[in-house]
Design a protein that fits this description.
alpha/beta, FAD/NAD(P)-binding domain, 13 helices, globular, 2-polyprenyl-6-methoxyphenol hydroxylase, FAD-bd
Length: 401
């Protein structure tokens, strides 16, 4: 039986573990965090990723955790409503698309892999490849040997750095940063996205159906001096400086930041690589081809990538080079289509001037009464739909081994 070490227990890691078990492999998942992380933000599952969830038998369970968002409400600095729109249209969703909290999805995937070994509170320190395996040194635990190692450890992947060199060489920043963290429920409205657009930056608060708290989201130009991605104190200071003097509920949200257990702050970046494997080490999800939160497709890329990688390795019959090559050939066009969405989406997420904001909110107010409204909506959702379905998924064999 082939032993595979997966680094990262977010979405891509547990999804890959599920499919590897289905194909007769023996996966182990190592995760730096001491326990499962339940925080995070809203993510979308659409197109081919929904098919993957269907084939895992998890569609009903995932659907039960849909966020249930109804409206997006745009407000000015004093709190006056500028415009509203349907939450699904705001998120580019249609049909069977599902919006779910990232923590809920990770929990569902981890619970579905209860026959897989999870090692929390540790991470990979070194990789030593040979012709027939990979010797893995861990930061805390003893060395272990695996047939394959897969990095599913996100934008700042340790596996990518160890196997391919410094991570910054593979990052393409989009010029903006994002910050997300939990705030008290009273700052939001249940099932409503509150958005405060300002020139060059945007602030939002949302509370999903039945949630005991809300999430605050800040989108803004990248600071001249970017804090280290693990220096939370410096990140909080940078966010407070960037939004000092801002109106609406921003002062209250910034005050709540200090108590947030799940503060997230990072550059809106993509991972662009010439290859996603070297020898017996490969990458999946954000570690290999992050599309950035602006794409709205990061979770779908992780789910589809896990499915395709497991199927490709299984079909290769013990030849990892052939398996990784098939995986890349199948995934490259899909990744390219979804990464292209990010810059297009950013143009609507952050507007450069007060005049652009006034025009956008005017169009939102007029949309329900405009002729050709359905065609306008299709033009908004069609690029997302095309990218989400830009892959033919390989079949799963009737028996695995």
């Amino acid at each position: 039986m082939t032993d595979v070490l997966i680094s990262g227990a977010g979405v891509a890691g547990p999804a890959l573990a599920w499919w590897l078990r289905r194909h007769g492999f023996r996966p182990t998942v190592v995760e730096r965090a001491p326990a499962r992380r339940d925080g995070g933000y809203k993510v979308d599952i659409r197109g081919a990723a929904l098919t993957v969830v269907d084939r895992m038998g998890l569609r009903e369970q995932v659907g039960r955790h849909d966020t249930g968002m109804r409206l997006a409400r745009f407000v000015e600095a004093g709190g006056r409503q500028l415009a509203t729109m349907d939450a699904a249209l705001f998120g580019g969703r249609e049909g069977d698309d599902v919006e779910i909290m990232r923590g809920d999805l990770a929990r569902i995937l981890i619970e579905a892999t209860d026959d897989v070994e999870y090692v929390h509170g540790d991470s990979i320190a070194a990789l030593d490849q040979s012709a027939d395996g990979v010797e893995v040194a861990f930061e805390r635990g003893p060395n272990r040997r695996f047939d394959l190692v897969v990095g599913a450890d996100g934008l700042h992947s340790t596996v990518r750095r160890l196997a391919f060199g410094p991570g910054s060489a593979h990052l393409r920043t989009l010029g903006y940063h994002i910050a997300i963290f939990t705030v008290p429920a009273e700052y939001g409205e249940e099932r409503v996205e509150l958005m405060h657009p300002a020139p060059g930056r945007s602030v939002g608060v949302y509370r999903t159906a039945g949630a005991p708290d809300a999430r605050a989201l800040f989108l803004f130009p990248s600071p001249a001096e970017e804090p280290d991605h693990r220096d939370v104190a410096a990140q909080r200071a940078a966010l407070a400086t960037t939004f000092a003097g801002a109106g609406w509920r921003v002062p209250e949200l910034l005050a709540a930041m200090a108590d947030a257990p799940d503060f997230y702050f990072d550059a809106m970046s993509q991972v662009r690589m010439d290859r996603w494997s070297t020898g017996r080490v490969g990458l999946v999800g954000d570690a290999g081809y992050a599309a950035s939160p602006a794409s709205g497709q990061g979770t779908s890329l992780s789910l589809v990538g896990a499915y395709v990688l497991a199927a490709s390795l299984a079909a290769a019959g013990g030849d990892p080079a052939a398996g990784f090559a098939t995986y890349e050939r199948r995934m490259r066009p899909f990744v390219a289509a979804n990464q292209q969405l990010a810059e297009r989406n950013l143009k609507g997420m952050v507007l450069g001037s007060a005049a652009q904001i006034r025009f956008q909110t005017l169009m939102l107010r007029l949309m329900p009464r405009l002729p050709g409204r359905e065609g306008m909506i299709r033009r908004v959702t069609e690029p997302i739909r095309k990218a989400a379905t830009a892959i033919a998924l390989p079949d799963v064999p009737a028996t695995a081994g």
